[in-house]
Every structure is written in structure tokens, then in C-alpha cells.
Batch of 3 targets.
Target 1
Amino acid sequence: MITKQNVIPLLKEACPSFEPSEEINFNDKEELQHELSRVAGHLISLEYNGQLEREPDVFEAIEQLYIEGESDVKEAVTTGLFQAMHEMIIDQQISPEEIGMLLKPHSLKWWKTIDHFSENSAEQ
């Protein structure tokens, strides 16, 4: 099982252009989510500049987090990474489908859940 301590190192290995914060307390849920929101910002920046497709390993890593991650890892990826990415794409004129096309099956399911939730919230 992938633990919270493995999340950022796994994403860094898959996306070498991302520079994580120097010291992260992985046991602190807020710190992990903050670091995942930094990953989200980096990925959206890459997409905005047309470079995200050059980082295919990051989508394999995200999929691995959903398949092999402990429940708190899956929750952190959904709320810390995907929710942050979804909020950022609106500002950058990037469609959810553009990101969805790059995701693998398990992570795509959760991406669509965030997208559906966001659409319903916007309608209210």
C-alpha cells in the first residue's frame, strides 16, 4: 500500500519538473493537501503551456495512487490534487475534458466525480 509519506516522492519521480517543498510533514493532512495543490498548479501550468502531454508518467503515478494508495492517500489526491486542479482550470480556460483525456481509468472516475460535483455546485 502507498502511504502519505510516498505520495509526493512518487509524483516528483513521475514529474521531474516539479520541485516539492523542502520539508513536509506528511502526517499533517493540511500540509499534504497544500503540497498536492502545488503539484496541481504545476500540472495546470504545464497544460496551459502545452507541455503536460510530455509528462505521461505523472498520470501513471496518479493512477497508482488510486489503485495502491491507502484510503487517506486517495482522499488527499481527490481533494488536494484534483479539486485544486479543477478550480485552476476554470481560470486558465482549460476544459475538464482536456485533463480527463490524459488520465487513466481509476483516476478518470474520480476526476469526473469532481467535475460533476463542481457543475452541480455552480448551478445552485
Target 2
Amino acid sequence: MVAKLVALVREAAAGARGIARNYPAGCSADALPWAVIKRFDDDVRGHVERDPRIEDQRDQVLIAAVNLAEASSDDADAPERERLVKAINDLEWVTLSRGIANRAAASLGYGEAGQRLRDAG
């Protein structure tokens, strides 16, 4: 069922938000962009059809993570942190609204190939 893939999207986004909110604890500035996007890449990206809107939003998450990593560590409430959280939220939304399960997802039991994530109900 595609609901499992939807759950993976939500879990990846929740994990990314946690990393963003806790930074700099848990990872270095160099590792932040990849730590934030890792679960999405590992659990979601290979299971949805390629869509330029999803890829563009993934890029925005990476850019926002780099900006946070480069921001002054003295500013605990850096606007860059909120921009990163917003970018993660947007990636979650665009993936859930535009994502389509692919054959790799179907082979893992995440729904039928071609099934839209927004139809998970």
C-alpha cells in the first residue's frame, strides 16, 4: 500500500526537522546538509518517480542547510534554521502531493507503480 511510502516521507521529514532544530548538536557544519537529506535519499527518493518539482525542493533543502551551517553559531534562533525547517516542510508537501510510486516501491510492497502518494487517503 502506498500508505507505507507516505509514512516514510513523513518520517524522513520529521527526522530532518529534528536535525535542523538540534544543530549544531549531533553533526558538523560540513555534515549538516547530508545529514538532513539522508533519510529522504535513502528511504524515499529511489521509490518515487523523478519529478523536477521534488528534485528542485530537495535542492532547496540542501541550500538552506548550507546556509545554516555557514551562519554564526552564536545565533541560536538563526533565521536560517527556520528557512531550513520551511524547506523541509515544502519538500514533504511536494513529495506527498506530486509523488508517484515507482517500480522499486512496488517491488517492496509500497503500493502499485504509478500510484500517487496523495491518494493514500
Target 3
Amino acid sequence: MKLTQNRLKQIWGKMLSGNFEEFGILRPELQASWKRCLQYKVDPYIPKIPVIGNHDLLAGKMRLNELIDISLPVMKNLYDFVKNSGFIVVLADTDGILIESMGDQEIMDSAQGVSFISGTNWSEESAGTNAIGTVLKTLEPIQIIGCEHFCQGIQNWTCSAAPIHEPDGNIVGVLDMSGHVKNVHLHTLGMVVAAVYAIENQMLSRRAWRNLEISNNYKNTIIESINEGLLAVDPRGFVSHVNMVAAGILGKDPEEIINNPISMILGEKNKLIANIILSQGDMTDREVNIYNNTGKTTCLITSRSICKKNKNEGTVILFNEIARARKLVQHMSGSEARLTFSDIIGQNEKFMETVRLAKAISGSISNVLLLGESGTGKDLFAQAIHNGSVRGNGPFVAINCGAIPRELIASELFGYSEGSFTGAKRGGKPGKFELANGGTIFLDEIGEMPLQLQTILLRAIEQKTITRIGGHDLIPVDVRIIAATNKNLQDEVGKGNFRQDLYYRLNVVRIDMVPLRERQEDIPLLINHFVKHLCSKLNKTKMMQVDAKVIKALKNYHWPGNIRELQNILERAVNVCQGSVLTPDDLPADFKVKDVRQVLLPVELYEKEMIGQLLKKHNHNITRVANELGISRSTLYRKLYKFKLS
């Protein structure tokens, strides 16, 4: 039932006096609002609506900057539609604070008389029943007419308001249109609701645009952060995306590439690659040469088609520079020279002369042959020589020629082509020489290399090219060779086990390693260095000291396994030591000097006795004896033959 303003006024007056007999004839939302106002103890005769300070108003506007930016044009359109009809359009925040308003000057002046201005609080708690405050309670559009207002001072006004929702559903503000009650019209609320829809659609569009912008930023960041070159081609063959790595490989600026045909970008020299890409087929790690104005770059190309409902939407191509990929593989696999001459410890004159020679030839490009017993530090010298050379920033690839089965060493050194044997990796695999291109290859235990392979190695050194196993293409390689062995290669040449011409090719600069037994003054330095390192490695809480008796015992030992054996003995001692000082009790039984007989025995007699004791200890297990001595099985066999030990 529609109530007249006079009837509403009567019911309102009775309510204030505590008479609720006719309260039930009010519409439900109005009943609920008036009850809330009574609970809030709102003054129905309030002379003035509370106003917040300018500072708080400014802060509120800044917080709702996007809402205001979107709402003002819509409010302007709504106002233009009702211009000169006695209405004011206002925007309020979720606290009921008016933050923007526009209308005819006459109605704006009237609004000021009832404090309907920016900065006033029109929540129900502050101003009683009104469209703005009641919307914030019901979360639904509403129209409040005349005496439906709880406060008497605004009962000659009508207001229509609707909540504004963010895309996620939360209310961000309220749009209201108010005027004198004589101008009330049922369609006013519909106009406000339509305007709110327009605001919400704009917010949704802006949110979608912002999300798209964020997505594009993510995409561009990902594209630029990968190490490979990336190129995206649309179904027409035009480039839609390119990163800086790909642009560098192609020798062009990104602006020259985007939105241009891939065939034009690649040019005549790369016509084959363009045809491969435009064929829209998938491929993985296909090796190609890409030519630009400064030369060529060898890459592995991987391409993937983008399909939607069996329709091609474009192709993504990855360019992986082989040189970069090899450097990464070497870093990850540990084939990297980490040690320098500053890591070499010693003061023995003969040893330091060896170090000086190594430093002197490190700047050369000549091949180096390191000769010496196992455990004397040939690997350390090889790394130091590499790092001290002009190739120090290039790869350092090490291979132990004695640790790889004879049937595999050729493919390890020179690689293999696809299909060269059963189980061969698709696309083939580069060998150590290719991986070392531009750097150094360290051939450890070169004396163990089979004769047949020595011939291939000699050809690679002389021609500076290699051919993969099963392949036909000559691959240029620019490497410096550092070889090492514990064998007497001249004797091996005499026995027919090592090619004389290869020996001369490797033996350009010969460095003879000094065994530890000839470096007695270096042993205390090495002990302190290793103990410090081991305490850190083994998570010892305190740095251990070394008893003088331990140093004496270790200085008097013959050290057939050299520095490697010393390091192993000290690691065992640090592990078993219960205190903060290493004592003779922490050494293996063989190192506890019980009399001077061990020191005074001739070197070879002592070595023979030592090997004999270890054979008994390990029940003639050759592997265990060799491990404890820190030498290879082949070296141990030679010593057994030499000393006539069965």
C-alpha cells in the first residue's frame, strides 16, 4: 500500500513517542532502517550532519582515485540528462562519506543547507534513514522519499541510490541522485542503477586491461630472462615476438624484426632455416648455422607449433647458441678450472722452480706434458696453467684416459653422429674436443690411451679438426692440450706402446712434478692447509691444532701416494679425533712411529715393505691396496712386478 507523505509523517511521529501500532504497514526495508536508527540512537532532529576534515577527505579521494576517475564521466552524463530538473548527483564511499557531487546551482545551494556536501557522513549511524546509508546496510538499490527519511531536516528531499561493485563483488562506493520531494519520479532509481552498471562495466574493462598489461609484462620478462633466443611467428609468417638474445643472433634490432616476414628477416643466406620454420613442423635441437652481417652463429633450433582446435595459430622457435650451451654444461658438470697458481702451496726450492716454469708457459698456446707420480698435483697444475692463459675465460674440459673403457673413449673424445650405433642419442653428441673449443682440454693418464686412438688424436692435433664417430663433416677445433701421465713415455715409446710422433706433439713443454717425499719442508704447510679445510668441510666446531709428533711422523713417511695420500690420511685423522689437537693416536697404525727403522730404511725397501703389509691387511685385494696408497691399479701392478710381490 502506497502511503501519503502525511500518513508517513504520522507514523514517524508515533514511532518517536514509542507507538509502533501502525509500524507494520511500512515497507520491510523501511521498518528495518528505522529500527536500526533507534538502536543507533540517531537524533531525528539533528541540526547538522557531521563533516570529516579536509585531510581525511583528501585521503579518501586518493584511495578511491580509480573509482572517481571512472565515475565522473558517467555522473556528468547522468547530470546532463536531468539538467535543470532540480537534481544533484553524488558519489559516496563505503563509509557513507560524500566525495563528489554535481548539479544545478539552485539545488547545490539547497543541498548545502542540509549538509549534503563533500565530506559529510551519510551513513545510517550518522544521518539516519537515507538512500546512501540504507544502501550500505541492505546492499541493494533503494529510493527514499520525503518522510521516509528518519531525520526531520531532510524529509522534504527524495534520494535514489545503488551500490557500486568491484569486479570481485566487493562494494566500493554508492551512486546517488537526490532532489526536492516534489520532483520525485519512480524512474529516477532506474537511471541510477543504469549509471552504476556503466561504472561497473568500465571498472571491469579497466581491470581486464590491467590484467592483460600485467600478463604482458610477465610474458616479456619471461621471454627476456631465458638464455635462449626466442622468436614467435604468426600463421602468416610474420614475427610477433622476439627477445634480445634472438635479435643479437640475427644481428638486428628488435624493432627491425617485429611485424616483418620471417623470410625477409633471415634473408637469402638463411633461406633454409626460414623454410624449416614456415613448414610449421615441430623439431628439437636441430643444429644450424645462422648468418648475419658479422659472421655466423651455430645454434640448436627447437620449434613448437601453437594449435587451437587443430588450427595452427603460429610457431615458437628457440635458438640455443652451442657455445653458450657448452659453457653451461661445463659449469654444471664441474668441467671447469677453479684452481689458480695462488692455490698452490709450497716453499721447497725444487718445487717452486716447477711452479715458476708453469707460470712462465701458462701464457703460451703450446701443448704441455705433466710428468710425475700419482697424487703429485698434476690436475692442480693443469687448472692453474689454463686459468693463467689467454684461454682462461674459455672452457676447461678434463678427461681421464685410463678411467674410460677402451670402446667408449673415442666417442667421449670426438663425439658421435646420430645413428652411428645402437642407442646413439638423437641428433648425436659432441665430444670433449668440441666442448673444449676455444679453451683447454686436459688429457689425464694419457699413457693409458689405446694405440689406435693415438692415431686419431695425432690427426686432430695436426689438422685442428675432428670428425664425430659415424660422421663425415670436419669440425674445426681450437684447443690447447695439457696431457699428464705417471708413466715414462719415452720407455713406452721404446716398448711400442706409445706413438713417438704423438709424444713429440705433446711434449712441447715438459713439466716434471716433484714427489712429496722430496718436499719435506712443505709438509707442515700442507698439513695446516688441509686440516683447516677439513675442519670446515667436516663441520668441526673448533679449528684443530696439530701435535708436533704428528708432523714428525708424517715428515718421516715415504708418501708413495703423495699429496693425495696425505690429504686422505689427514681426513681420516680429523674424523676420528675426539679433542682439539691431532695426536699420533689419530693416525692409522702404519703411521705411528714406534722406532726409527721406518725412517732409516732405503726408499725402495720401505715401499716394498709397505705394499707387502697392505697386501696382507686387505687379503691381496688390489683395489683396496691401491686406494689406500692413493695410486691407480695399473701403477700398483707395476710396483708388484718390480718388487716381485705376488
